[in-house]
UniProtKB/TrEMBL annotation, chain A:
Alphabetized Pfam families for the sequence: PhaG_MnhG_YufB
Family statement drawn from the similarity comment of this UniProt entry: Belongs to the CPA3 antiporters (TC 2.A.63) subunit G family.
Transmembrane segments: 40-60, 97-119
GO molecular function (one): sodium:proton antiporter activity
PANTHER family: ANTIPORTER SUBUNIT MNHG2-RELATED
Endpoints of the signal sequence: 1-16
Keywords: Membrane, Signal, Transmembrane, Transmembrane helix
Lineage: Bacteria, Bacillati, Actinomycetota, Actinomycetes, Micrococcales
Record's protein name: Multisubunit sodium/proton antiporter, MrpG subunit
From TrEMBL, chain B:
Matches recorded under Pfam families: MrpF_PhaF
Protein name: Multisubunit sodium/proton antiporter, MrpF subunit
UniProt record similarity statement: Belongs to the CPA3 antiporters (TC 2.A.63) subunit F family.
Keyword flag Cell cycle: no
GO molecular function terms listed in the Swiss-Prot or TrEMBL record: sodium:proton antiporter activity
Membrane topology: Multi-pass membrane protein
Regions crossing the membrane: 34-53, 60-82
Amino acid sequence: MIGAALVSSAAAAATAATSTAPEITPRIPEFSGDPIRDTFTVLLVMVGAVMCFAAGVGLLRFPDVLSRLHAATKPQVLGLLAITADVAVSTPTVGNITLAIAIILFQSLTAPISAHMVARAAYRTHHVRHDLLIRDDLLNREDLQQP
Amino acid sequence: MLAVVIVITVLFGAGALAAVYRIIKGPSLLDRVIASDVLVATVMCALGAEMALNHHADNLPVLLALAMFAVLGSISVARFMAKQDDA
């Protein structure tokens, strides 16, 4: 009798647990229904993703610091431009468009600064492959050349 | 939509993995700096893609902060790098 009661209470607890447990189903994003906006959203997201992938491939394949720097600036400016324009197209409110413009402005202000500083440090620490350069405007600066 | 999500996940993931490989492997310090910049840009693009596909805009302030301050690290490393540093 007691065992049956235990089993029944265990079964009740089990049913209670299954009924209160949240159902875990992966939530797939939905299209908004507007075909023009959905086309732009998918197109711009794909542009950003391809830019990030291209930067990864460039980091793996390119031979020296300057050419890797060239590959790295693609997602920093073009990919982020596509993605923030995508957010502005996907949820077009005044606040979102203003923030997107601010993001693009600050990123395009700061990305060239860091690229310039990294390239300058690469030249001064002799991490540049001179056999790959077509023209080197700093060749007349003896203080920057390799001893 | 599921196909789009899978494709962009693979592309972002491959880009981020390549950047992490270059951070670990990279022959010079500047290669690691460039690769970490690419990793930050990939994270920003992934956050924005999630916002665009789910039709919300909660992460836009995060993107703004990253766009303003993510360069400080690479600038300071490049500026104060020792001249004879080969690592």
